[in-house]
Amino acid sequence: MKDTRVTEMEEVAIRFSGDSGDGMQLTGTLFSDASALFGNDISTFPDYPSEIRAPQGTVGGVSGFQVQFGRKQINTPGDFAHVLIAMNPAALKANAKFMNPGGTIIYDVDSFNEKNLAKANFTTDDPFAECHLDDFVKIPVPMTELTRESLKEFGLDNKSILRSKNMFALGLVCWMFNRPLDYIDEYIRTKFGKKPGVAESNIKVLHDGFNYGMNLQHMTPNFIVHPAEIEKGIYRNISGNVATAWGFLAASEKSGRPLFLGSYPITPATEILSTLSERKDLGVKTFQAEDEIAGIASAIGASFAGNLAITTTSGPGLALKSEAIGLAVMAEVPLVIVNVQRGGPSTGLPTKTEQSDLLQALYGRNGESPAVVIAASTPSDCFNYAFIASKIALERMVPVILLTDGFLGNGSEPWRIPSMSELPEIKPRFAQNPETFKAYARDPETLAREWAIPGTPGFEHRIGGLEKNIAGNVSHDPDNHQINSETREAKVQRVVDMVPDLEVYGDEEGDVLLVGWGGTYGHMISAARELRQEGRNVSLAHFNYIKPLPKNTVEVFSKFKKIIVGELNLGQFAGYLRNMVPQFTYYQVNKMKGLPFTVNELKQSVYKLLEE
Amino acid sequence: MAELLQYTVKDFKSENEVRWCPGCGDYAIMNAVQRTMAGMGIPREKFAVISGIGCSSRFPYYMSTYGFHTIHGRATAVASGVKLANPELNVWVITGDGDGMAIGGNHFIHLIRRNIDLNVILFNNRIYGLTKGQYSPTSERGKKTKTSPFGTIEDPFVPGQLVIGARGTFFARSIDGNLKLSQSVFESAASHKGTSMVEVLQNCVIFNDGAHDMLTDPLYRADRQLILEHGKPMIFGANNDKGIAFDNRGKLKVVTIGENGVTADDILVHDETEQDPTLHMALINMQLPEFPVALGVIRKVEAPVYDAEMVAQIKQVQQTAKVKCVDDLLKSGNTWEVK
Q1: Exposed/middle/buried for A257, CB within 10 Å: 0-12, 13-18, 19+?
Q2: N or C end of chain A: which has fewer CB within 10 A?
C-alpha cells in the first residue's frame, strides 16, 4: 500500500450531503466557485427537500448539492458521484443510489451513532451493508469532535460549533482536490464582515479540515483534476435564474424600455423576482403582487403603458395565469412569461425538475390562443433566451412563454461574460403616424401591430379581450373573427424568420437522431458525445424554439433512420412533433422522477433502438 | 405661468355608439366622468381608463382616452401595472359589484392597502346584469334572483367597510341620478393622492330596477340621504332640521333640531381628513330606515402613495449605486479571467 493515493482524473463528481440545516448548499457552492476559479469547467445541481427544516436526522430532511468538474467540457453535474460527503446516516441513505460504483464516502463518524441510525431507519449497526456500499472506499472522519477541538479557544456554544462542521468538511475536500482556500477565506470574511469572530472561527475550522487531510494523507485519497481548456475571456459562475433575470436587464437596456416585473413568489422561480428586486440601481420596477393572476395582470398593464413587461412563475402559477395570457394574446401586447418548470401536477414536486408544462405552455388556454414558446437549455444560456424572448415580444407584439426548469434555474455553470455591444439591437414597433394609426393595423411582413404608448398625443385607442376590428373596437362579425384567429396564429408562425436553423451535433445523417428540448441539453449532448466516441452513428438535434419550430426541422429529421425524443415528461414534445411534423416516426425516452436524465440511461435507450 | 388647457365633455367622447340599455344609470355616471375630466385641464392622451368585465366595463370603448377593457375582476391589477409603469398617467378604473367585490375581491383590497394613485369607480347595482340577473355580493339577504329562486341565504358586502378594513385613504359614495354630486366626488377623487374608491349606487333598469328607489324617491330623498360636505354639519331632511349626533353611548343617532333640547351645536361636523376611521366607518354603516344613507366624500386622508414611493426608492438607490449599466453588473462580484 502506498503512503499517498494520488489519482489523476478527467472529471469528478462530488456530492455534499447533510441535514437541511447543515449548510450543504453553501458548502457545495463555495467548492464549485473555488473549482471554477481554479480553471475547471463545472456544472452544479442542488437537490433539496421542499420542507424548510424537516425533522433533523431523517431522510426527508436531507439536502444535497452535486458538482461535477473537469479538465474538459462539463455539460452535466454527473449521473453518479465519485465522492460523497455524508454528514449523518440519513445523508448516506438518501444518496447511496447516486454513487458511482467503487466511489469514496467521507462521513462524520461522530454522527453515526445509534440515535441517528435509528432516525434514518437503519435496522442494523452497519449502514454501509444495508445500503449495499460494501465495495466503496469509506473514510470515517470524527468531524464533530475535530471541529469542537478546533474551536475550543473561541468560547462558542455547542450549537455554533456544530454549525461550523460543514467548513471542516469543505476544508478536507479542498485538500483532496488541491483547491486553494484563499477564495473561500475571502468569501467568509466578506459575508461575516460585521462579525469578525464568526469569520475567524469558520476560517479556522476550514483550515483545520484542510490540514487534517494533509496530515493523514495515508488514509485520504488525493485527486488531481487539471484545469480545462476553455475559451478566453472574463468568466463568472451563474445560475439559470440569475441569468434569466439579467437577460431581461440586458433586453431593457437594448430596447430602451423600462423593465417591469409583476410576480408572486413560487419555488423554483422566486430567485428571478428577488434578483430583479435588487436592481433598483438599474431602474427596475418589481411588483410582488397578491397572487399569480395579479402578477401577470400588472405586467399586462405595464406592457400597455410601454414597459418591457415580464411575469415569472412555475407550473401551478402558469395555470393561474392562463386567462390573462389569453388577454395578452387577444390584445396583442408584448409580454414575456417565464415558467421555471417543476414536478406536477398540482403542487407536485416543488423543488424537483420536470418538463411537463410544455403542452400547458402551448395550448393551456381557452380559444385559439397562440403564443411563442421557447426554451433555454443551460443555466447560462437562460440569459440569451430571456433576451431573445424580450426581443421577439417587443418587435412582434406578442406574448412569449420562456420555459426553463428547476434544474436550470438552480443549477450553475461558468459563463463567459458578454459585452452589451455583442448583443443584437431590439427595435420595438412604436406607432409612427397619428394620422393613419389604427390599433390593429399590421406590418405586412410580420403581421405585428404598432405599439402606441399611453401619454402620446394623437394615438388614443382602446384595446381589450373582446374580439375587435382593425381600430380596436368590439366586433362580433363572423368573418372578422375567422380572419383574426388565423392572423394571430400566422403572426406567431412568422416569428420563424427570427429563429436560427436547428443545428445538428454530429453527422448530418445517420442511424439515430437523438432529439431533445430545453433543460436536458447537458445530458443529451454528453450522451451523444459518448455514443459517438464509442463509434455509434448517433447525432443530436436539440430544440430551443418550440413554437414556431425552426424552418429546417423536416430537413434535419429526414436524414436519419430513426428519431428518438428524450424528455422529462410522458412524451409531450414527441406528441407535438407528431402533430406538426407527422411524416416521421418518433421513438421516446421519458423520465418522471423529478430528476434530470442520467447520461447512461439516455445511452441505454439508444443502444436498444440500434438493436431493434 | 402655464396656460390652463380648456377642454369640453365632447373631447372625451369616442366615436363609438354607446350601447347600454335605455334608462341605464351608466349613462349619467359616464357623463359625470367626462365632465370631471374636461375640467381637470389635462389633455386626453394622459388619461387611461381600465375596466374589467360587466355592463359598466364597456366604459373605455366610449371614451376618447387611452383605454383597456381587460378580464373579469382584474382591472384593478392591470391598472396597478399601468400606473407603476407610467406614473405620469391619470388612471381610472371602472368596475362593478360583481367584478370588484366577487371575482376581483382580492385585487380590490390589496390595491387599497397599497394606496396606488388610481381613481376607482365601483358601479353598484347589486345584481349581475350582463349575465342576466343573478345575485351579486352586494345583493341584500333574501334577494330572489334566477340563481336564488327561494331567496339568498348570505349577507352582502358593504364596499365602504372593505375600504376601511383595507386601510383605505379615500372613500366616497354617490348615486347615478345625481350628476352634480357624482361630478363633485369624482373631482375630489381625482385630486386625492392614493387609491380613491367611489361607490356609485346605480340602477339596472332591466334586472334590478328600483334597487335604490327607497333612497332616490323624490318624495322622501331629502329625509333619506345625508350628503356630506367637509367642515359642514351633518344636517339633512326636507326642512333641514335633522342631523346626526352621538348618543350617550357614543353611537350615532338621528336628532331633530329644536326637539328634546337639541340645538345646531349638537350636530356632528364632517371631517373627511380625520385619520381615525371610527366615525367614517359609522357613517358608512348607516342604513335605512333608521338612518339616512351617507353620500359624498366620507374619507379623504393623506398616506404614503405606492407609485411615488417606488419612484423615490429607485432614485435613492441610484444616487449611491456602483452599477450604472448592465455591463457594470455583468462584471461585478466574483469573476475570473481565462487567458
Answers
A1: buried
A2: N
Chains A and B form CB pairs within 8 A to the count of: 202
CA distance A309 to chain B (A): 9
Q: Which chain B residues are within 8 Å of A437, Cβ to Cβ?
A: none
User: If you average pLDDT over residues A389-417, what whole number do you get?
Assistant: 96
Pick the CATH number of A6-224 from 3.30.930.10, 2.130.10.10, 3.40.920.10, 3.40.50.150: 3.40.920.10
Task: Yes or no: say if A273 and A261 are a contact pair by the CB < 8 Å rule.
Answer: yes
Residues of chain A with Cβ-Cβ distance to B45 below 8 Å are: 454-460
Say yes or no for a CB contact (<8 Å) between A331 and B325.
no
Residue B326 half-sphere exposure toward CB, CA atoms < 13 A: 26
For residue A127, what are the β-bridge partners? none
Q: Report residue A144 CA to chain centroid gap.
A: 34
Three cell numbers written together for A576: 407535438
Residue A405 region, left (φ>0) first, then alpha (ψ -120 to 50), else beta? beta
Is B45–A420 a contact, with Cβ atoms under 8 angstroms apart?
no
H or E, element range at A99: strand A99-108
Predicted pLDDT of residue A4: 47
Please judge whether A282 and B323 are an interchain contact, meaning their C-beta atoms are less than 8 angstroms apart.
yes
* Paired strand residues for B250: none
CA distance B5 to A515: 64
d(C-alpha A248, C-alpha A254), whole Å: 10
CATH class of the domain whose range is A504-611: alpha beta
Kindly state the cell numbers that stand for A392. Answer: 421577439
Q: Are B30 and B74 in contact (CB under 8 A)?
A: no
Residues B223-272: pLDDT tens digits? 999 999 999 999 999 999 999 999 999 999 999 999 999 999 999 999 99
